[in-house]
Amino acid sequence: GEDVEQSLFLSVREGDSSVINCTYTDSSSTYLYWYKQEPGAGLQLLTYIFSNMDMKQDQRLTVLLNKKDKHLSLRIADTQTGDSAIYFCAESTANFGNEKLTFGTGTRLTIIP
Amino acid sequence: NAGVMQNPRHLVRRRGQEARLRCSPMKGHSHVYWYRQLPEEGLKFMVYLQKENIIDESGMPKERFSAEFPKEGPSILRIQQVVRGDSAAYFCASSRQGVRSTGELFFGEGSRLTVL
Questions:
Q1: How far is B20 from chain A (nearest CA, A)?
Q2: Considering only CA atoms, which of B67, B57, B61, B62 is closest in space to residue B21?
């Protein structure tokens, strides 16, 4: 079955770049996602990338996809205190009738002043 | 443009009672999904519905759990005879044309169920 793995914790100094990594096992993944969850809140869709793309950039966010290694990363430039949250990687597969996302366990990003 | 609306945000039930969680999808969205998040874990898919139809319930426990998305009104996730292990955050998500078509999936704020 599908599996998505992330490291649990990341600490970064304010102003530095954060890089959150994710690996997945399903070679037929179609879309790969990054969601942000602040304490007690829902999941905010940050960005997603179609599997035929290598990179997607949106303001401070850069997503890199290495499909050969099944590795996805999220880079946050100029990290701010408001970026403190749990970041979830997720993937979906375009099999017929399959509409579900498989999530990683999340990476808790802590910003050091 | 309101997002996915869930209520109640917090629900406390005693063992054996019933829990009903409601979800109104974003305007124009006809695809609804329910996910469960246990403490310190990622989200796990439960069920996918379109209006009046359950499309995929492969993640739903076989007993005590049911979901519906009627022609009119919100989607409902119902948990009968709750047990302590049902304590979790239940998230609803919606999509305009389905995840396979557009990739987009938007989540609500979640309903946090505590079973005493």
A1: 19
A2: B67
